[in-house]
């Protein structure tokens, strides 16, 4: 464990002792900052949730980066969240900020964990942050490399070829990006071939929040269905191994055709419920 800067220690103690904000106070502070640029409100909001940056930073220490730097990066994410947060969107600031803090630290880890930019797409980033834990879970000393790759791909729901790419990158040595590609290509470094396909942090955070919002609407609509229709939807669309119409019909004591009719009616109800909820949220 690296020595901790005394200033970081003081910051951690202060953050952990800071006030906890209720939803109403949090909303008022966010409004004051957004509409009046009230710096005192901003300071109070940031101070209250600095503990989030510390909590996330401790989980990212396994990548071998200094805790001081991770906390600082988390604070940058927290500030970015305060700047982008819309108090009227229905989400708590703490939830919104947590997304920004994690995204900020992930980008910092990706930039600094290796000289080579290890992950360049969503599947590889998922592998980068979950591969070690998955290897520990799956590897028993007897699994062949090929079988292990398949198991990791299945466990993390990513393409097997991406697993092979990540295993190769993480087991190889770092190479300077300013190294020429070959003796015959004067002036052309590996850096020239790298395409920046990273989705902007703001876009990714908003997309993740929108996905969570839609899931919440969907599951609320499913829970509102009559019991038999809810069971059919769960068995047909929400299970890892969906059941057939005939199988469900046997369990319910009805025909396969009747199950299909109930499924169609349930899907229509879900669609209407989700649409109405979305319209209400839009008109606010």
How would you describe the overall organization of this protein?
The protein has 284 residues and is an all-alpha fold. The protein has 3 domains: 6-112, Four Helix Bundle (Hemerythrin (Met), subunit A) (Up-down Bundle); 116-175 and 192-198, no CATH class; 201-283, Orthogonal Bundle (Arc Repressor Mutant, subunit A). Helices cover 69% and strands 0% of the residues. The chain contains 13 helices and no strands. It has helices spanning 6-16, 23-36, 39-48, 50-60, 67-84, 93-112, 122-138, 145-156, 160-171, 201-223, 227-238, 245-252, 256-283. The longest helix has 28 residues, at 256-283.
How are the secondary structure elements laid out?
Blueprint: H1 6-16, H2 23-36, H3 39-48, H4 50-60, H5 67-84, H6 93-112, H7 122-138, H8 145-156, H9 160-171, H10 201-223, H11 227-238, H12 245-252, H13 256-283
Helix pairs in contact: 2-3, 4-5, 4-6, 5-6, 6-10, 7-8, 7-9, 8-9, 10-13, 11-13, 12-13
